[in-house]
């Protein structure tokens, strides 16, 4: 039995992803404090919504998908009811396994995970790192659960803030680029629906090339860049505006914010 505590954007993406890949709704419980939202979840996914105490007592695996700022109070509320042997997986940005272990009883196994919202469509990217009491069996259990909604990699915990900045927040960067390209097309007089279609398929095609060709992105970009052509003109403008540096700074800012979130 799995309990998801917190069915916001990420919790619901995981819930929908798990159910969409064959998990039985009777094996999944959700903790959601707002009665209206809880009713919607029961209706939409046919899952049980339960109290945190009930989830702690009944679930073999608990997924915490609440805000980092709520983590300590939720853990403190759960601690008395969690039996030994439970696996607790937190997807919260910045919350270390040390923080989880400090607020969980005895030797409860904690795994820190960083998924992303494409989990909703089975194309998530999740990195996991185990805490002090997480055995290989716990990591395998976390990996097998999260791999139902995409790819899972194990990383040393010291990389988790960087993971958060790259793949956790990453979809937002691509949506930002998509939005910017669509608006540029509209600005030049193209109907929005046409611009959106061009951008969507271009992103999908570029991602497929990156995945399937095995080439470095620089090689793929060079293949698009005809001598004296349009791409060279565009890339020169991106460089002139410091887009590369802006991306590097943005990702570092996300990493730093993730670090700061563990400090409350
Ligand atoms: N969004 C993303 O792309 C990703 C998010 N994450 C992590 O996932 C976590 C959630 O983020 P996100 O989904 O964006 O945020 P949301 O605000 O959408 O979700 C948080 C959810 O937690 C619920 N909640 C608050 N308090 C409790 C409680 N005591 N018990 C049960 N549920 C509670 C909220 O319910 P209510 O609204 O009713 O208060 C809300 O549904 C964060 O820690 C974030 O770092 C990780 C990877 C990617
Ligand atoms: O923005 C956030 O804090 C969360 C963590 C990674 C993606 N969304």
UniProtKB/TrEMBL annotation:
Q: Which NCBIfam families does this one have?
A: proC (TIGR00112)
PROSITE patterns attached to this UniProt entry: P5CR
What residues does NADP(+) bind to?
5-10, 65-68
**Where is this chain primarily localised?**
cytoplasm
GO CC, one annotated term: cytoplasm
Pfam families cross-referenced by the UniProt entry: F420_oxidored, P5CR_dimer
Q: Which UniProt keywords apply?
A: Amino-acid biosynthesis, Cytoplasm, NADP, Oxidoreductase, Proline biosynthesis
Determine the domain of life of the protein's source.
Answer: Bacteria
MF GO annotations: pyrroline-5-carboxylate reductase activity
Reaction equations catalysed: L-proline + NAD(+) = (S)-1-pyrroline-5-carboxylate + NADH + 2 H(+); L-proline + NADP(+) = (S)-1-pyrroline-5-carboxylate + NADPH + 2 H(+)
Q: What is its EC number?
A: 1.5.1.2
**Where can this protein be found?**
Cytoplasm
Protein name in the entry: Pyrroline-5-carboxylate reductase
Root EC class: oxidoreductase
Pathways involved: Amino-acid biosynthesis; L-proline biosynthesis; L-proline from L-glutamate 5-semialdehyde: step 1/1
Q: What does this protein do?
A: Catalyzes the reduction of 1-pyrroline-5-carboxylate (PCA) to L-proline.
Answer yes or no on keyword Plastid: no
List each copy of the Pyrroline-5-carboxylate reductase dimerisation domain by range. Answer: 157-260
Which taxonomic lineage is given here? Bacteria, Bacillati, Actinomycetota, Actinomycetes, Streptosporangiales
Q: Which residues form the Pyrroline-5-carboxylate reductase catalytic N-terminal domain?
A: 2-94
Q: Which family does it belong to?
A: Belongs to the pyrroline-5-carboxylate reductase family.
Q: A biological process (GO) annotation for this entry? A: L-proline biosynthetic process
Q: Which organism is it from?
A: Murinocardiopsis flavida
């Amino acid at each position: 039995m799995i309990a998801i505590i917190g069915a916001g954007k990420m919790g619901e993406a995981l819930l929908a992803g798990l159910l969409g890949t064959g998990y039985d709704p009777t094996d999944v419980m959700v903790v959601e404090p707002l009665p209206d939202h809880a009713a919607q979840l029961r209706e939409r996914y046919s899952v049980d919504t339960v109290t945190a105490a009930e989830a702690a007592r009944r679930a073999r695996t608990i997924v915490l998908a609440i805000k980092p700022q709520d983590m300590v109070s939720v853990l403190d509320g759960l601690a008395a009811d969690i039996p030994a042997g439970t696996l607790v997986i937190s997807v919260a940005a910045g919350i270390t396994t040390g923080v989880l272990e400090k607020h969980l009883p005895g030797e409860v196994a904690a795994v820190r995970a960083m998924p992303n919202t494409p989990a909703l469509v089975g194309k998530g990217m999740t990195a996991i790192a185990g805490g002090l009491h997480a055995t290989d069996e716990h990591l395998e259990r976390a990996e097998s659960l999260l791999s139902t909604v995409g790819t899972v990699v194990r990383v040393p915990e010291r990389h988790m803030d960087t993971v958060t900045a790259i793949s956790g927040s990453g979809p937002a960067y691509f949506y930002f680029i998509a939005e910017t390209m669509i608006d540029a097309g509209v600005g030049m007089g193209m109907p929005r629906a046409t611009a959106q279609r061009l951008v969507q398929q271009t992103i999908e095609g570029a991602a497929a090339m990156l995945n399937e060709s095995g080439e470095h992105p620089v090689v793929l970009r060079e293949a698009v860049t005809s001598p004296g052509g349009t791409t060279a003109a565009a890339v020169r403008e991106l460089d002139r505006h410091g887009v590369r540096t802006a991306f590097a700074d943005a990702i570092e800012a996300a990493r730093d914010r993730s670090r700061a979130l563990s400090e409350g």
